[in-house]
Amino acid sequence: MRLSRYINNISGLQLINFLRFLTFLIVSIIFTKIPLSTKQIGDFEMMMFIANLVSFFWVTGIIQSLLSIYNKNDVFPGIKNDPDRKSPEIFNAFLLLLGFSIFLFILGQVSKGHLYVYRNMREIPHINLVLWYILLNNPTNLIEYIYILRNQSRHVFFYGIASYLVTLLLIAVPVLLGYDIDVAFRGLILASILRFIWLIAMLKKYAEFKISIPFIKSHMKLGIPLIVSSLLSGSAQYIDNFLVALNFEPKEFALFRYGAKELPLVVMLASGLHNAMLPEFSTSPDLRIVLARIRHRSRRLINLLFPITIILLIFSNWIYIHMFNPAFRPAADVFMVYLLLIMSRLVFPQTILIGLQKTKPVMVISILEIIFNTLLSLALIKVYHLTGVVLATVIVFLLEKFAMITYVYVEFKIKPEKYIPIRLWAFYSILLITLFVLIDHRIIKIY
Predict the structure, then answer these.
(1) Considering the domain boundaries, does residue 445 fall inside one?
(2) How far is Cα 241 from Cα 390, in angstroms, rounded to an integer?
(3) Boundaries of domain holding 329
(4) Distances (CA, A) of 69 to 73, 218, 313, 357
(5) How much is the pTM?
(6) Cα angle value 11/12/14 (rounded, 5°)
């Protein structure tokens, strides 16, 4: 059978996200098998954490607003239906991504020497390398979405394989040859340079180099609520990391970061579905068709990811002992709680709100979410230590999705069953929670 039958915009984005997750999972395994010290691993994880912390929200907001506005805007209305056109929208989105990256690079250079992590007030490790990675890597997030907007999902497949294979080699080879973590991070920066060159070539081919202040204003009017909501809702994970960094030593921070390794798999596959569905709200003539597609495709994700999650839950202790090393067994406790986040990740009311360009309710709900998450995390960390901050996030994320589902129903009269396979989701969720309780209370033990 031809590969093209199985590659579409959704599967293409999900593949990219999965390859990103798989690449850094393999890197994590290599780091523990060499072995590097937990301090060295903790430094690398902190560098990645800081780079993602200052970037994830505005990159997400700019790209998601581009997906919504690309085929439906008032600035370039006469050319949106031409599939072969060179796009000024793509070029202006690139300018926004580059502008934000340059601003952070300059701000970081000015602030060097005053940025600290961990409770002993250590400086961010290798801050110069982190800043160069921020500058060069963030604009390259646009690449796969250019392919998606041009309906070239096969190119996403080949780009993802090539890009992350090179990334893996450039990170792993230096440490396998005995070099320190900073050299591995330089390899990551080199991979970003190669992707940036790829992006420039794509812009020459697909973008019209035309600066449009009206489009940038329109883009940011839609994007700012998404940036704020992404900052607030996504901050839950980063608050978890900050609370751990402020209350524990680098060794515990490394354990915590390794315990969170499953969550990106679920998030990335779910976000692939979410982002790929956004353009359909502006191109499909019937909202009911889009809702049915969300329901059908989320059902497929539920049937795929819940069984995987259940298996990982059962064998979590064994996995951490044998995949990494016995010193990382405590990370399995964090890992098991993170697995519960799948319950909130695989329902998509936010896709409907953003697709209909109703971004302000998303922002308001996110503000409430971050307040509750912070308060609950501070309370539970005193009782459950590392796992307490994760448990708070699980609870608050479920409340966030419930609030969005309620808003969609009240405002648009869209019943949850129109886009959520409720019975299937409830069955797997109850099964997952039951197994978690049995394993957490040591009624089921597998080592």
Answers:
(1) no
(2) 10
(3) 3-440
(4) 5, 9, 40, 9
(5) 0.69
(6) 60
